[in-house]
Amino acid sequence: MFREGKSVSKYPLRLVYAKSTFGENPEFKMGVSVSKKYFKKAVDRNYFKRVLRETYRLNKQVLRENLIEPYSFMLLYQTKDRLSYEEINQKTIELFEKFHLQIKPKEEQ
After folding, report:
1. Count of domains for the chain
2. pLDDT digit string (tens) for 45-80?
3. Are the C-beta atoms of 15 and 74 separated by less than 8 Å?
4. Where are the transmembrane segments (predicted)?
5. Rounded to an integer, what distance in angstroms lies between the CA atom of residue 11 and that of residue 3?
6. Confidence (pLDDT) at 109
7. Domain annotation covers residue 39
8. pLDDT tens digit sequence for 5-32
9. What angle do CA 57, 37, 12 make, to 5 degrees?
10. DSSP type of residue 71
């Protein structure tokens, strides 16, 4: 996915995505990652992974809108800054909207 996929960023988040085919009927699959480079302690990495999963869960309808084909996603937290939940939630929404703007012209053709 990282080689063939594309990405979109909204500081400090990055969304890597690729079209995929699934055996069943899911629209997309999502993974999250927080770098050990920025957070040495597992408890800190796990906290931000939980926050990313929760913001995804609450805002997946924004990501799901207008998707025609199935996608695989990887959501990455790429900074050592400790943003609050509200800031990460807002950035997640902006990132998902930016994703739609990036794929929209390609799907209309």
Report:
1. 1
2. 999 999 999 999 999 898 888 787 888 899 999 999
3. yes
4. none
5. 21
6. 42
7. yes
8. 899 999 999 999 988 876 666 678 899 9
9. 45
10. E
